[in-house]
Amino acid sequence: MSRQQIVIHRKGWIGTVLLTLYAVLSFGCAAPQVPSRMIYEDPVNFVRLEEDAEVLEEWSPSHHTHPFTIEPEKLRAILLGLKVREHGIALQRWWRGESPLVSAFTDEEVAFLSVHIVEALAEAKANERVTFYLSQPQTFARRIITTGGLYIHGTDLHLILGNWRIVYGIPAYGMIYDRRYPMRPTAAKGFDLIFHPSEAVIPTKSSFLDEVLANSKDELIIDLTKLEPSEPTVSLLNSCVNQDFSC
Fold first, then answer.
1. 39 plus 123 within the same structural domain
2. Coil, strand, or helix at residue 204?
């Protein structure tokens, strides 16, 4: 083999190695796409259905109660009942007291979500969950985001707030995670998610680390049966008193 052939052979080998390395790095940096289907999308917001990896097809107890029908006004009342409070450790709370409660969503966001989440729940499959993404562009590369997701299991509504009014800077290169993974935090959370009436909230256990990182109160489980209006029961009792029905 001549010297020129050796040089050409080496260049070809080096080129092949570089292409292979580039392909490996590109694959390694690429985040997997979550299987999803869009319910509503505009340039700054969306509501969609995503496959829930924790639901096992062969184990029916893991299946969500989807599709699920809920009235927009009832969902609106639930969203209005969600409050956020800045998280503080015991020492901070002792020194400055509890931080004030703030509505998790604005009136415009409640109006948007109460329509499209109802639609999403009605179309959801047993292995899907509803996710939402709300953003307010600030500059070309910055936006304020509120994101999360929910699903119905039995008679319980499970809701997690991944980000709440977080300033997200779009990276100059690399993956844009806030739209791809709306249930994942893009920064340390530092807030507690609270619901009123509190009697409808099902207590959950959390680890010490979650307490320290303020991740223990970013998810709520709400018993929907405890949100039913009491008027029908009162009406039935009054009917029994008036002997209009056999009770």
1. yes
2. coil
pTM, two decimals, is 0.74
Considering only residues 218 and 119, tell me which one the structure prediction assigns the higher pLDDT. Answer: 119
Same structural domain, 19 and 63 = no
Helix (H, G, I), strand (E, B) or coil at 242: coil
Q: Of 126, 130, 35, 13, which Cα lies nearest the Cα of 75?
A: 130
Residue 232, preceding peptide bond in cis (omega within 30° of 0): no
* 90-127 residue pLDDT tens: 445 445 556 789 999 999 999 999 999 999 999 999 99
Q: Are 180 and 31 in contact (CB under 8 A)?
A: yes
For position 204, what pLDDT does the model report? Answer: 82
Q: 59 and 18 in one domain? A: no
Identify the CA nearest to 98 among candidates 83, 119, 114: 83
Using alpha carbons, select from 126, 157, 176 the residue that is nearest to residue 227.
Answer: 157
**Domain residue limits at 71:** 34-231
75/22 same-domain check: no
- Same domain, residue pair 20 and 114: no
Q: How far apart are CA 130 and CA 150, in angstroms?
A: 5
Residue 49 domain-assigned? yes
Judge if 60 and 170 occupy the same domain: yes
